[in-house]
Write a structure and sequence with these properties.
468 residues, EvaA-like, 24 strands, 18% helix, Nucleoside Triphosphate Pyrophosphohydrolase, EvaA-like_sf, NDP-hexose 2,3-dehydratase family protein, 7-stranded mixed beta sheet, alpha+beta
Length: 468
Amino acid sequence: MSSTVARPPAGPRTLRPRSDASVAARVARSAAETTGARLRTEDFPQWLEGRRAAHRFQVDRIPFGELAGWSFEAATGNLVHRSGRFFTVEGLHVTADTGPFREWYQPIIKQPEVGILGILAKEFDGVLHFLMQAKMEPGNRNLLQLSPTVQATRSNYTKVHRGADVKYIEYFTRPGRGRVLADVLQSEHGSWFFRKSNRNMIVEAVGEVPLHDDFCWLTLGQIGELLHLDNVVNMDSRTVLACAPFPDADHGALHADTDLLSWFTAERSRHDVRAERVPLDRLPGWQRSEWTIDHEEDRYFRVVAVAVQAGSREVAGWTQPLFEPLGLGVTAFLTRRIGGVPHVLVHARVEGGFLDTVELGPTVQYTPDNYAHVAAEDRPPFLDLVLDADPSRVRYEAVHSEEGGRFLNAESRYLLVDADEDQAPLDPPPGYRWATPGQLTSLVRHGHYLNVQARTLLACLNATGVRI
């Protein structure tokens, strides 16, 4: 015979608010504050140059045969690391049901592990400051740029490379070290990565935070000022800052949130895109030499190899492949004030490497040189409008580097360009829709809604206070 012991009823639990409006207000206050408590903006260039001088950086192109630990697989031609970690360069075959190019082959980076892009926040003098790092990336044209507190793949922070510890990683991997202000999986470049995601995090630290060399505290307003400069704030910083919980000051929108989401869901549903990984050595139109893998028409991008020396990194020297785009990209939102409320024109964009086929991108996201040979009727919508924009209509412009850990000299000219009804009507072509910055800020709290280029422009729009 068995008996059970009666358990007392569970005690009442204290319910918490589902959101804290004060966080958005604190983020907005930081964005409005351009005087830092720890480093003045006018002193930042000297600080960055000091960090550059403190370490030895060098990147040299090498033939594939000099890659240490990397090799081309005999069966597939895929470029792989002997550890089985980091990433591989493989082939991709894409077919789509819309657009002037409905089938293509290309090399692609497959990096299935999820990395951490994390920015640590802390209040000084009542204003949120963000801990930023002067980090060297081999693909950056100027090598050293402002990166998040932590910018590390799983292979990095689990020390597959047997290097030094990633500083501050514990704030993002150990619960209780801080208060999470933002935490979301976001995609990377869908044109060059195959279904790659990173965890974008902002964590407010609890207690004192040691300040290591190569790190500095800046307000969001200071970072916004730096976003006006070319090649200073790196891509990883921009994507994390886009996830910051800004307040929504928009009073109404051309399309209600539910209508915008319904349109986007329909866009995802209507596209038939198939992306299949194939062997790298079986890509029609691509050729491999001792130094490069490139397209036979010398367009798009090439795969190259480099040897890196970096005194400030967890490993002082290594070799690796990089993707090198051919030509400067142009990435832009067309903007309008509709009923007095700022709007941007988003594009439901198909990219072969996306996990969900379609993400919301900028109005224009192209490398013009890749379309020089295309007939006028097949040129991307709005591209020529942006290229020929009157300077008086340009509300924001800067050249920013793309991900410097995998791409060599990959730069895009980012713009916000004011348009009128004749240039960009309220009823735009299929695949385009007007949305407010507040609506995008709401969507970016969820993964795989906004692509990395749209997130860059959203970060620039929110942090710089550009008026559209």
